[in-house]
Structure formats: C-alpha cells, structure tokens
Design a protein that fits this description.
This is XRE family transcriptional regulator. By secondary structure, this protein is an all-alpha fold. It contains four helices and no strands. Helix 1 packs across helix 2.
Length: 58
C-alpha cells in the first residue's frame, strides 16, 4: 500500500501521512484508529505504546 492509497482510505492527504511518519505533527485519536484499521494492526503498534513502562498505563 502506498502513502497515496493509505491517505485515500483514511481520508487524509499524502502530505499529512508523510508528516506523521516523520513526527512533524501529531495524530488525533480518531485518525490513529482509522490508520490502524486500514493497516490491519492494533492501535498501540502505531502509537509505540508497547514501549511505555507498564506503570504509566491506565
């Protein structure tokens, strides 16, 4: 899947996807959910939440 394909699926611009990949902007939770669904991964894989210490999770 290309950035253009992904952007079309989640209703974002390719530039926005590129900015997310390079950490130039922050992603909203709703867009993070859309990205996770489109990429067929769990949301925590996109947010690097698995790297957080266990005590920080609610």
């Amino acid at each position: 899947m290309t950035i253009r394909d992904l952007a079309a699926v989640v209703n974002m611009t390719p530039e926005a996807i590129s900015n997310l990949e390079t950490s130039r902007c922050k992603v909203s939770l709703s867009n993070l959910r859309k990205l996770a669904d489109a990429l067929n991964v769990q949301i925590f894989h996109l947010g690097c939440f698995e790297c957080l210490p266990e005590k920080t999770l609610g």
